[in-house]
Amino acid sequence: MKDTSRQKKLASRLNPWTVASQRVHSLSISNSDKDIIIQLFKKAYTTNSIELLHIGTRKRKFVETQAIIIAVIYEYFKITLKQLGYIIEKHHATSLHYINLYEDVLCSKDENRELYEMLADYINKELYGNGGNESYNVFSKDNKELKILCKKLILENKTLHANMQSIKAIVNV
Predict the structure, then answer these.
(1) If you ran DSSP here, which 8-state letter would residue 56 be given?
(2) d(CA 25, CA 150)
(3) Are residues 67 and 134 both part of a single domain?
(4) What is the pLDDT along the chain (173 residues), one digit of tens a residue?
(5) At 24, which CATH number?
(6) Which of 5, 78, 84, 107 has CB 3.0 to 4.6 Å from 95, enough for a Cys bridge?
(7) Is the domain of 100 the same as that of 136?
(8) Contact 62, 54 (CB under 8 A)
(9) Which pTM does this prediction carry?
(10) Are residues 145 and 80 in the same domain?
């Protein structure tokens, strides 16, 4: 007969974010990005009281938390949908579904939007320092406005890059 009490004690020592973030270590991204992503899981799971028994279930609280984490990771890191699916042990289509789920449904709930903003603020501070988030206020815009702003910035970036290439050609640098 197996000693299930020993297994339960061992499992209770594990944190839910430890289990959920184990696969992050095998991704080919920088160690600092790995640490930030693991902290995202920790912060989100702690905030939403996700326990080890919720991992892998279809509990609404767990699925919504996963969707928010995936949406944040997808926005801030150059990680493919396949890699996102690998992190959460789901298909890449599930990652895309989670991203769309957040954008279409979950951002309308205050508690979900607050979690997203908290995680995004954490990433901004980790990546850009304390002043990184103060240079622009993305939280005052909705998704449609942000997508338009993003397209404008991409176009402006391409224009600036083309101008830089012209200047380099003239100066022979």
Answers:
(1) T
(2) 30
(3) yes
(4) 455 555 545 554 578 777 767 889 888 888 999 999 999 999 999 999 888 878 888 888 889 999 999 999 998 988 899 999 999 889 999 999 988 888 877 778 888 889 999 999 999 898 877 755 444 566 666 777 777 778 778 888 888 888 888 888 888 87
(5) 1.10.1750.10
(6) 84
(7) yes
(8) yes
(9) 0.67
(10) no
* DSSP code at position 61: H
Helix (H) or strand (E) holding 67: helix 60-76
Residue 136 in tokens: 């622009």
How many whole angstroms separate alpha carbon 88 and alpha carbon 150?
A: 27
Say whether both 52 and 133 belong to one domain.
yes
The answer for 20, left when phi > 0, alpha when psi is -120 to 50, beta otherwise, is alpha
Same domain, 101 and 151: no
- Residue 157 tokens read as 């970036």
Residues 6+ apart with CB under 8 A from 9: none
Residues with Cβ within 8 Å of 101's Cβ and at least 6 positions away in sequence, in order, are: 67
H-type alpha helices, 129-142: none
The candidate with the shortest Cα–Cα distance to 90, out of 31, 42, 39, 20, is 20
Q: Residue 155: which domain range?
A: 141-173
| Residues 136, 148 within the same domain | no
Amino acid identity at 19: V
Q: Is the domain of 11 the same as that of 77?
A: yes
Would you say 31 and 118 are in contact if contact means Cβ atoms under 8 Å apart?
Answer: no
